Amino acid sequence: MSAVTSEVREDGICIVTMSHPPVNALTVQGWFDVASALDAAGADPRVKVVVLRAEGKGYNAGVDIKEMQNTTGFDALIGANKGCYAAFKAVYECAVPVIAAVNGFCVGGGVGLVGNADIVVAAENAYFGVPEVKQGALGAATHMARLVPQQMMRALYFTAATIPATELHRFGSVYRLAPPEQLLEVALEVAASIAEKDGRVIRAAKEALNGIEPVDVNKSYRFEQGFTFELNLAGVSDELRDDFAGTDKAKK
């Protein structure tokens, strides 16, 4: 069963939902499923806007480290890198605007999705972070830099600290805050204000805004991934992932 489902409503809003308990840490296939859902939504002439949301206690906890630890060789690592790249790219290049409706925690790969979204709506208790340095990987700095100022991004990246949605709202990168129980309602309200417009104009506007971006997010993220491969080849990543997995198991 796929961790990603998609529903196209009569008003032109497509709701894409991620659900992979317990923490929405997506497998390799899960990341490609996100990409496929966004690609399909953009290719559907009925769709004017996408709401990318999640079920459960958090929005996204990044890649499934357990899958990586239980796979010999580098297949899972390469798959996760390619899957994340495809998913982030699909969000950014979706032919229609993508609204990220963020509940709870949004870390690692979750920031990659949200940072490439057009609009972010978040629950008042949501928080964001890129803890990659603790696990011997790099990535999503490209996307965190779209949510916070440069020095703030570097501080969050080096310290692996998190930042609350309320702060991102102050920076302007979170468009609307909502009580957790009203998150989808608020996201759909924002989506409806887009869906009422002419779809041809909305699609042209999305393409135009992407065309004037000062940073090529796809190339920037791919550059980051190169350092993740270096750390893996050096054995650093395995060591830190083993420590993380051991700590995680101890908690359970």
From TrEMBL:
Record field: transmembrane: none
This protein's record includes keyword Lipid metabolism: yes
Keywords: Lipid metabolism, Lyase
Listed CDD domains: crotonase-like
InterPro entries, per the entry: ClpP/crotonase-like_dom_sf (IPR029045), Enoyl-CoA_hydra/iso (IPR001753)
Pfam families named among the record's database cross-references: ECH_1
UniProt record similarity statement: Belongs to the enoyl-CoA hydratase/isomerase family.
Protein name as annotated: Enoyl-CoA hydratase family protein
Taxonomic lineage: Bacteria, Bacillati, Actinomycetota, Actinomycetes, Propionibacteriales
